[in-house]
Design a protein that fits this description.
Layout: H1 2-17, E1 31-35, E2 42-45, E3 50-51, E4 64-65, H2 78-88, E5 98-104, E6 107-112, E7 117-121, H3 126-138, E8 144-149, E9 157-164
Parallel strand pairs: 1-4, 7-8
Antiparallel strand pairs: 1-2, 2-3, 5-6, 6-7, 8-9
Amino acid sequence: MVILAVIAAGALFQIFFGDKTVTGTVLVPEPAATISSGEDAIAVTARGAIVPWFPLPDEPELPTLPLSEPPKGNRLAGPMLQQARVLGAAPAALRPYLASSYYGESGVDVETTAGIELRFGDASQAAQKWKSAAAVLADPTITALDYVDLYAPKHPAYGGSGHTLPPPP
């Protein structure tokens, strides 16, 4: 009986006074776009969080959302959130070539620095749509175009000849 009491007392001691080490993980948001530009630019994450305290990278510049100032609150909604989700899914290799995003008649459109319009529709399957866009932009048989339609990511459509593709990174 004494042995059982000692074991119980030891267990209680360990529960109440034992090692209480706590480890934490800090998740740093990765900006996907900005609101405004220059010194007034404010970072926006792919999930639509507005993080005005976050330092923006010098290079490459992040694409801008068509807002002159952040919305009230700390999150984007509606078409702006769709744009942030699309931009957040962009592969790192393509990010230096992205200039801006807007929400047009066809949904989310991203404009490259070369002026080529990438038409996403909505943010669903954004990663797959970016893979399709990268495949079209990397195709050596295509030397100039105006748009890439990514509504059906397995069958992207493209056309035009007004913009020359940028050189690979």
